[in-house]
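Supplementary notes for students who missed Thursday's class. We covered one full example, reproduced here. Read the sequence, then the structure, then the short commentary at the end.
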Amino acid sequence: MPAVSPCRTGRLGRLTVELTDSPGSLAEVTAVLGRLEANIVEVLHQRTFVSLPLQSAEVEFILQTRGLPHMRAVVEGLRAEGIEGRWVEQQAD
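Structure (token representation):
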């Protein structure tokens, strides 16, 4: 039986967050992710080459979660803290 990708089971996913480009913004998001028990595997902080308003940044997190319900709970938990995040859908193999 072939192994199922962690991405397909929701255990690994890409979350994109737009935040203000100011001191402490990234720390605030990572603190919330920690409280929501999402494990940060990788971070890409993009301030240039994106079509965002000035003083904004896009941060992409690769997160390890307990599965799809946990992924949804992470987005809802961020939203409850005033942080908008969205999961980036994986491409089909």
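Commentary. Strands lie at 12-20, 39-46, 56-64, 85-88. The mean pLDDT is 83. If anything here is unclear, bring it to office hours.
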